[in-house]
Amino acid sequence: MDHGMVCVTGASGFLASWLIKxxxxxxxxxxxxxxxxxxxxxxxxxxxxxxxxxxxxxVKAELTEEGSFDNAIMGCTGVFHMASPxxxxxxxxREEIIKPAVNGxxxxxxxxxxxxxxxxxxxxxxxxxxxxxxNFDPKVPLDESSWSSVELCEKLQIWYVLSKTMAEKAAWExxxxxxxxxxxxxxxFVVGPSLxxxxxxxxxxxxxxxxxxxxxxxxxxxMGYVHIDDVARCHILVYEHEEAEGRYLCSSTVIDNDELVxxxxxxYPTLTIPKRFEQLGRPYYEFNTTKIERLGxxxxxxxxxxxxxxxxxxxxxxxxxx
Length: 322
Known about the structure:
By secondary structure, this protein is of the alpha/beta class. 42% of the residues lie in helices and 15% in strands. It has one domain: NAD(P)-binding Rossmann-like Domain (Rossmann fold), CATH 3.40.50.
């Protein structure tokens, strides 16, 4: 079945690659934006996807260049905006993280505005835009009506969270003013197989945890987790579902680090998974995901996401199980 043409920004990324895989399997024609379409090593995993030779086109676009998404987006009925600024060593967070995240999002949306065929934009946000706040009742699960506090993010200097929150807010403002049909997907920490051969920070954090590192994971404290395939399927569901509107939390299970490592150690006794973590005193919270579940969505379990992730890490030679 031909579903028409959609654009995916930041096509070579961890999540975007998996979404493209799912879109191609569903019969879509996909235009993916990348920084360098000639980089065969970085893009080989996309060309190897089923349906890619027939229905995938990769074009050059830069988040920071005004108008650079015009060609990719023109003629598409849907746009999945997943590209986010590449984070290196940061000296000026406002200039290097926040501005590119907000301006990059607005850049993509300005190109969307020029496209008369556009039906809907799906923006990938993050559960960090929901959970960083003071004085919430831990007995009431957080839902789509919750927003992270900009002031608290600034005070704690959590620039990534601030960039995601401000970018999503800017998107809502722009789309409301310009009559663009926007839906946002708000995934928690994404776990699952990595199609790109080089691991993104999310996947390398998990690899570190499985190899006994506590440093990067200790900042999680309590965290929501979700299977990468669920996030991709959720994007397609809210794109295709006529009545879908607003924000959609996409998270399977919220658990503490200690609980997570005991589940993983029981399942993978030969891996050097840390036994416990120092407690950072993070507030207890749960997510209420009934909004996406009402569209008929069912989430995979924590075991499934880590099983699939570990199988992929072993297959790609990043991990060996004694």
